[in-house]
Each structure stands twice: as structure tokens, then as C-alpha cells.
Records
---
Amino acid sequence: MTIRLGDTAPDFTAKTTEGTIEFHKWLGDGWGILFSHPKDYTPVCTTELGRVANLKGEFEKRNVKTIAISVDPLESHKGWINDINETQSCTMNYPIIADPDRNVATMYGMIHPNALDNLTVRSVFIIGPDKKVKLQLTYPASTGRNFDEILRVIDSLQLTANYQVATPADWKHGDDCVVIPAIKTEDIPAKFPKGFKEIKPYLRMTPQPDL
Ligand code: BEZ
């Protein structure tokens, strides 16, 4: 199944290391990140899961719940968590979905036969409070994800959901933003009292509006 931005994230019931969950209920009213890893007891995955555990405070600040998934069974996940905690100096603090039948992986298009025919690739889905998919990323097994980038994207998504701005290349929290093209230049002062700079008629910059 192909999932596109703006689609409702498919709902499912699954066993996880923190009990059985119904995904949409588990997400509640906040934001969510569902990320897949190819296999338990593998080196890159071990570092990724530890990194997300150590970033818990950053995700909580942004009202984002995280959940991982692989096609390995629950008993495997439970044993592997000990290794993650030991080697990544963390305490696992979010669930890992066990998906041995690949129900969820298939629903989310996480199996890419030309990359890994029976494992999930490194997919990331960011899901908004309306349960719509706001972003998806796909990495090959050989490249661990950059979770600072994922936090940066969440900052942009949360900002642009509430203000009529977009974020330019390499933007990070605190940097100037782009006024969206739909706003006429003459209407900017009323909407952006912090001011704006017109670099070109189509490129108008304004300080981050929520600071
Ligand atoms: C890893 O997590 O290290 C990994 C998993 C599958 C293939 C290659 C690397």
C-alpha cells in the first residue's frame, strides 16, 4: 500500500513491548512518530533505538510519542532491549511493535523487496494530532537516521501548522521564516507585526512568529 502525505495513518492493533495497543487510541491527541528498523540484534538499529530513548525529553516537549517496529517477535524485542540499555546508556522508554506476520509493515509499505526482501527498511512516519501523515522518510539499512533532523522537522511542522509561514533550507528553531506565497505583500504587516524583509516579491522573510 502506498501512503502519501495527508493520508490518514492506517490504524492497527498490535502487540508491543509495553502491551497490546490500538494505534490511534495510543496516539491520543498529540503527535506521533512510527519508525521501522530492519532487524533486532543489529548494530545500527541498536544505536537508533538508544538515541530515541535518550531524546525522550525532547519528544515530550513537543508532545510527540515515539514507537518503533520490526518484524521480529516480542520475545526477541524483550531480550534485545537489555542490550540497547547496556550499550547505549539508556533505559528504553517507548514501545517496540512486534510484527512477525508483517501486517503493519505491509500496511505502511515498509517492506521494499529491491532493498530488503523480508525485512523492513528504515521508514519514519510523522503523524499529526489529526492522525494524518505529515512526513515520511525512507533510509536504507546501511544508514542510521539523524534524529536531530527529525526533531527539526517536527519543529517546522508544528510551526507551519499554526502560522502562515514556511521554513527555508537548513532552518532551525529561532531562525527567520518565509511568508507563504498566498499572502499578499501589502497584507504582511497586519499578520506579522515583528516585521518582514522583501528580498524578491516572492521571497519575504519574517522573524519566527511564535517567539
Ligand atoms: C543494522 O541495523 O546494523 C543493520 C540491519 C540490517 C542490515 C544492515 C545493518
---
Amino acid sequence: MLVLGIETSCDETAASVVKDGKKILSNIIYSQLVHEKYGGVVPELASREHIRTIIPIVQSALKKAKVSKKQIEGIAVTYGPGLVGSLLIGLSFAKALSYSLGIPFLGINHLEGHIFSIFLEHPRLKPPFICLIVSGGHSELILVKNKGDYHILGRTKDDAAGEAFDKVAKLLNIGYPGGPAIDKLSQKGNRNFFRFPRAFLKGSFDFSFSGLKTAVALYVSKRLSQNSDFPTTDIAASFQEAVVDVLVEKTIKAALSENVKKIACVGGVARNSRLRKEFKKRCKDKNLKVFFPSSILCTDNAVMIAACGDFHLRRGERSSLDLNAVPYAELI
Ligand code: KG4
Ligand code: ZN
């Protein structure tokens, strides 16, 4: 089955054609540049960019896949969570295309999409496993009992992991998006320079990163008020180490407590080089296996939406034309 995936939940306009939920025929992603000068996503500008680019992006996904729109058998589109204006562009486009072609469409939960990003390159990874979704909007620890069957173990109580990266990068004045900037800078820094607090929230699998962000802000403002310089690279590396420490420790604890041997780490922050290294090392020590998507499938993309859509469409699931965008959609 040929499925067209469409993703417009935040600041990426993406379209992809996937065959049988496995074979990526195209993966077109336009990352909006307009937000750079504001140091964060401006929702109204994101919607306008989606409107401007959705048609050429879908056209190039079809062209790259060498299929005509008449060959597409189903459309999968993100309906939430995300920015309501952005979601509405992709969703309305998908509805119109499905209606005009007379083919089914299905609204996909963006978080379930991220979970499916792991299956494309690791087809032998079978549930049950623990999935850590870490992105700009989410930090969720999920027990994947089966495809389509999830149990949420924990989530962030305040800032998402990626959000913390972005806010600390802004504070340190090292660019946007903050995650890649901190990752790169940290490679030259001393991660043991300063021990920032780790919120392990004992007895819970929830996360909290706002205290850590405040600790970095306080450290920086104290140094500035004393008119003393601070080593940006070392602060970045020390902050990153605190985030990585908490994410890896809690995910491994969840795997041990659920008695599963496999972990998947997905979402934009899963690109982080220190996170990958530390996950691999600590999982090996505990006899666990950890899986990551390749970089291009970590950040928002439509491949994961098409693959997830393929699974649900095959089960006969369909959305009707009155499906609305749901900015705070829950996974279950
Ligand atoms: O999954 P994604 O593209 O969008 C959301 O669904 O939010 O994730 C974007 C987030 C941003 O916060 C960005 O700073 C972070 O992923 N990110 C990283 C890295 N690359 C992207 N965080 C840490 N290290 C990276 N290398
Ligand atoms: Zn995402």
C-alpha cells in the first residue's frame, strides 16, 4: 500500500511517500527559517509558512517517490498535538486531497508518529519496549506493549527536554535551535565543570527540567553581576550532562521495573551525541539494548506519520471529514 504522510504540527512542513509501512520512497522536510531571528517558533508565522509551502512540498514528495497522486492509496496526517494553526493547514489539505481522490485519510497522533520512527530502520525491534520521546514539546516515557497499545509511565511536569535546550541556548546566546548548538559546543567543554541539579523525582517516572534551566540562569546572572566572565562551553556541557543523566537514568529504571530488555529513544533530542553515547554505555552495563532512529527521522518528518498511518489504515481505521485539529491531543 502506498501512503502519503503529511506533517505540519510545528515549524516543519513535511511530506513523504512510504510503501507498505516500511519502504521510504521520499522524505521531504522544509524546516522554516523565518523563526530564527525570534529565537523561537512564532505560531502565526508558522501557519503562513505552511500555507505557502504545503503544495510544493507534497508535489516534490510525489515526484521524488516517482508516483502520481492517483497511485496513492491512503493519506496519513498529524491532527495533534501541536500548534492549532499549523495543524489545521496539513489537516485541511489532507482532507481536500482525500475527498478529491476518493481515498481514505487518517488523523495521526504526532507522538505515536515519533514511536513509529523507530520501526523503519529497526524492523526487528518488536514490542514490548520502553520508548523515550524527547523533543521540543515532549518528554514522555512510554511502555510500548504492542504497536497501537501504549502505557504512559511518565512525562514532563514542566519544560520538555528540547525546550530546556532551546531556552538555555538563548540564555547563553549561542543560537537557535538550541539543542544542536549546545550539542556542538559541549564537545569542547568540561561536562564536570559545574554540577547542576538533577530532578530525579524519586518514586515517579515523570521529568522536570525547569529547575535546571533556572539554575543555569542564576549561575549566569551571578557571574555577570560580579562582572566576571563565565566559560560558555563548560556551562553548556555541564547543563547537557544534567539533562542526559536524568533521561538515561530514569529510562533505564523504567526498563528494569517493567522487566523489558529494549529501549527506543526518539524525537529531536534523540539526535544528541552525548545522550546517544551515554545511553549505549549504561544500557550495555545493564544488559539492555538501545535503539535510535537516524538523525533525519528524529526531528519532525512525515515518514513516521505515513508508517503509523499504514498500520492503522490496514486495521480499517478511517477519519471522517469533521476531524478537527487537537492541540493537546493525548497519546492514549
Ligand atoms: O522532534 P522535533 O523536531 O520537534 C518537536 O516535536 O518538538 O524536536 C525539536 C527539538 C528542539 O528543541 C531542538 O533543540 C532539539 O529537538 N534538538 C536537539 C538536538 N537536535 C535537535 N537537542 C539536543 N541535541 C541535539 N543534537
Ligand atoms: Zn515531534
